[in-house]
Structure formats: structure tokens, C-alpha cells
Amino acid sequence: MSDELQKISAEAENGMKKAINHLEIELTKIRAGKATPSILEGINVDYYGTPTPISQVANVQVLDSRTISIQPWEKNMLPLIERSIMAANIGITPQNDGVNIRLFMPPLTEERRKELYKKASGEGESSKIAIRNIRRDHIEQVKKLQKDGMSEDICKGAEDTIQALTDKHIALVEKHLEAKEKEMMTI
């Protein structure tokens, strides 16, 4: 395979890996009834005029499978952290005891589990679409090289390589979705 075709295949693989990484990040944000510190990712607190992640102004711990404890390093941060969590609308009401903030994860109903699985499936489908778009774009690049005079056999081999990458990454998406479904549906 020529250098150009190897470069196209490598770009396709990198793009597909990014799609998988994005899916993994999005799936961790979907709460499956278990307490994880990742629920608080993306929630910022106004720390002396600067939006700062909660993990940088407090100690975040998982006490048990349904409880997260947030212990601010400065006591005056308690109401700010509490307000930020409420404003983030993550579906959990913080409990402030004057020293710590505790988040108690409510048990998920069957209906809520199915709703969350639909959301996870939607993320998976978005990733599959992204992977297929990457495949399409890179196969078009290969076909352009073929039009410009590259051997048809060499180009067909490159297309097969890109298709194999696509199949591999779509199978990975399915694997991630299966794991998330198993995690969500266990009581």
C-alpha cells in the first residue's frame, strides 16, 4: 500500500477511535443508579470569580454504591457547591450538613432504566453514524486517488482495510452498549 493510502487508513482509524472515546465519555455521564464521581464532571463552582470544577475545590468520595460525599476545602464553599449542583439539574438534591454535602442516588425505576438505556442507545447510534461518515469520507479519498491513476487493486485493498476498521469500531460500540445495558438493568 502506498504512503498516501496508509495515511488515509491511519486518519480513518484515528477518527474512529475519537468517536469511541466520545461514546465512552458520554456513557459515563449517563447515571446507572450507582454513585460515581463522574456525575459531577462538567459542574463548575464560582471560586472567587472563576468557574472551577467541583473536584478542584472539594474532596469528592463515593461512600457506598448510592452515596457521594463532597467535603469542601473551604467551609464558605458549601453553599456555592450546593447551588451549582442544584443548577446543573442532575436529578439529585444535595444534602448539606454544615460540613459535607451528600448526594444520595435514588433507586431507579424500571421505566427510568429503559429511558436511560434509550439515551445510551442514542449515543451509540450517534457514534455509529460518526464512524460510518468517517468511512465514507476516507473511501471517497481513496476513490479520488484511483481516478488520479492509482491501481484499482491497491485502492480496493485500501477500501477493504477501511471497511475492516469500520466493522471493528462498530463492534466496539455494540460492546460498550451491552456493558452499559447490563450495568443499568441490574438492580
Structure description:
With 187 residues, the protein is α+β, with helices and mostly antiparallel strands. The chain has 2 domains: 105 residues, Topoisomerase I, Chain A, domain 4 (Orthogonal Bundle), CATH 1.10.132; 68 residues, Gyrase A, domain 2, CATH 3.30.1360. The chain is 59% helix and 15% strand. The protein contains 4 helices and 6 strands. The chain has a 4-stranded antiparallel β-sheet, with helices on one face. Strands 1-2 form a two-stranded antiparallel sheet. A hairpin with a 2-residue loop joins strand 3 and strand 4. Helix 1 runs antiparallel to helix 3 and helix 3 packs antiparallel against helix 4. The chain is elongated and about 75 Å long. The chain starts with a helix and ends with a helix. 26% of the residues are buried. The mean pLDDT is 86.
Distinctive features:
four-stranded antiparallel sheet, Topoisomerase I, Chain A, domain 4, two-stranded antiparallel sheet, alpha+beta, 4 helices, 59% helix, elongated, 187 residues, Gyrase A, domain 2
